[in-house]
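User: Modeling request: complex.
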Amino acid sequence: MMPKRLLVRGARQLLTLRGSAPPRRGAGLKELSIIENAAMVVEDGQITAVGPASRIENLATVRHAEELNVRGRVVMPGFVDSHTHLLYGAPRLEDFEMRIAGRSYEEIAAAGGGIASSAKKVRRASQAALRAQAQRELWRMAACGTTTVEAKSGYALDGPGELRCLRVLDGLDGQPIEVLPTFLGAHAVPEEFHGRSDAYIDYLVSEVMPAVAARKLARFVDVYCDRNAFSLPQARRYLEAARRLGFGLRVHAAQFADIGAVALAVELGAHSVDHLERIDPAVIPVLGRSSTVATLLPGSVLFLGGSQHAPARALIEAGAAVALATDYNPGTSPMWNMQMAVALACTQMRMTPAEAIVAATVNAAYSLGIADRTGTLESGKQADFVVLDAGDYREIGYYFGANLAVMTVKNGRLLEPPEEESTDGKETG
Ligand code: NIG
Ligand code: FE
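Assistant: Request completed. Predicted assembly structure:
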C-alpha cells in the first residue's frame, strides 16, 4: 500500500529539473536546479513540497508522514524512455552472429533476418508469451530507474497482429510503469506484400490505422523512412493519414541516410524525429527552429558497431530540443538502461551530464506530450523518481554500463518486482 503521506529525506543532491518551459533548448538543456541536502513530500502519488531539508522537515504536515531515508544519495526524476520497441517476442541472436561475421544490418534484413523475421515469430507467439516477454522488460527498465516508456508495435505487420500487440501493451500500462503505445505498422514490408510496398502502405492507411484509431490503441504513429525502408512519398502518405486521424507523429529518420525524412517530420509537425545519425547538415537549422524534438539513440550506433553518432553538439547549437532514448529492440539496441544512454551521450556525443539528464527526462516527456505531469520534481507533478547510489549526478554518465538505481518510485509507489517476475529468462506464459 502506498502511504498517504511520504517524506523523502536524506538526498545529498535532489535534481528537480525545474526551469524554463519545455522543451529545453540551448542553455536550457543544462537546467538541473539541484537542491543539496534536500527533502520532498509526496501525497497520494503527487509531489506536494520539495526543498532544503531544513525547511521541508519542519513543515507541520510531515509530522506523521512515513519516511523514506535515501542516506546521502542522488534523487532525480524517473527516466522517460521515449523510443522503444518493447514487445518483440524473442531476441535475434542469429542476426547478432551474422553481424559479428561482418554482414551489415541492411544486408541481414535483405537476407531474411531483421524486422520481418521478428514479425514471423511474433505472429506465431501466444498473447501470454508476448505479455510475459514485455512484462519482464518493463521490470528491467524500472529497476534501472525508468518510470515511463513509449512502446511501438511493428513486429506483426498485419492488422490482427498489430492490434493484438497494441492490446498487450495497453494491458501492461502501469504494470509497473506507464506505457504509451505507438502504432508502427510501417516498420518493414511483410512477406505477403513482398515487392509491393505501396500496396502495404495502402492497406495500413485504409484498414489498419483506422482500426487502431477507433479502438484508441495508440497515441502516436511512427514510420521507418530511410534507405532500404519506406520511401519519402510513402511516409508522407502514411503520416498525413495518421494526422487526419488525430495521432501524434514520430519518425525514424536518417539512421542510414537522410532521404528527406527529417524535413518531412518538421513539415508535418511531428512530436519527435528519431535517430539522426546521418542528418543532412543543411536540415539541422530547420530542425533547430522547429518544435519537433530530436530524439537521439546512441545505443543503436554502439550495438551496430558504428562510429557515426548523431551530431548532438551541432543540434544543440542550432537550438534543437534534444531528447535521449534507448531504442530498446532486438535488432539494433538490446539495451534497456537509460543510464547507459546517458553515458553514451556524454562519451560519444559530447553532451554534458546535465544536458543528457534533461534530454532523458523532461524533454523526452515533452516529446510524448506529458511534460505537464512528469519529467521534473516539482509540486503538482507525479512522484516519479529514482534514487541513485551516487553522491554526484555526474556519476551517471561516468560509470558506464552500470546500474546505479537502488529505488524506483512511480506515482509515489516504491517498485519491487514480485518473485515470479525474476529475470531468469524462463517464460511464465
Ligand atoms: O530503431 N531501424 C528501424 N527500427 C529499429 C530496429 C528494429 C529491429 O531491427 O528490430 C531501430 O533501430
Ligand atoms: Fe527504433
